[in-house]
Amino acid sequence: MVKLLKHLKEYTKESIIGPLFKLLEASFELVIPLVMASIIDVGIKNRDYPYIYKMAALMIFLGLLGLACSLTAQYFAAKAAAGFGTDLRKHLFSHINKLSFQAVDQAGTSTLITRMTNDINQVQSGVNLVLRLFLRSPFIVAGAAVMAYTIHMRISLFFLFAILILSLVIYGIIAITIPLYKKVQSRLDRVLLSARENLSGARVIWALNRQEDEINQFQ
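Above: the chain's sequence. Below: its structure in token form.
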């Protein structure tokens, strides 16, 4: 993955601005519970309606700021990921064209097609997710724990326990899905190979009346 980062050089600005705006969005989201707590502890307790209206307006303002930051981050993250995928696909296509016929036959045409299409799309989506969520999620989790501690220390213990359980669940999901993803990749190569063989030999299949056999094999 480190070798692929060179394709993000032209989009360094977008790769920095996107996560920064995500951090701003997360910061606004973390401030809202404090505003809500002040409404309950001060406004509702003292029946201070002007204070409640003022804090409610502040919450709406923070929500709008968070939405603006989120849209900005989405734009720059999508621009960086799309540019990264385009540059990577261009370099991979150029590299494949330089391969010998023996290397192409050894790798397999279906495998090369998968690398050019599905694999690059997956990497592009991964870059987009990293720019949007990689920094935001830990900041939200740690910030929520800190904010809970400032409001009520005992509640923060439940947050820490939930964070631990959530981390274990995420690790378990990753450990289970990575081997499954490898199986999907190998079977996708087989599907592309079967489709290519059927397209290139359509006339032969039709002449020998092998349509049903090929359909069953494809399924």
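The domain at 2-218 is CATH 1.20.1560.10 (ABC transporter transmembrane region fold).
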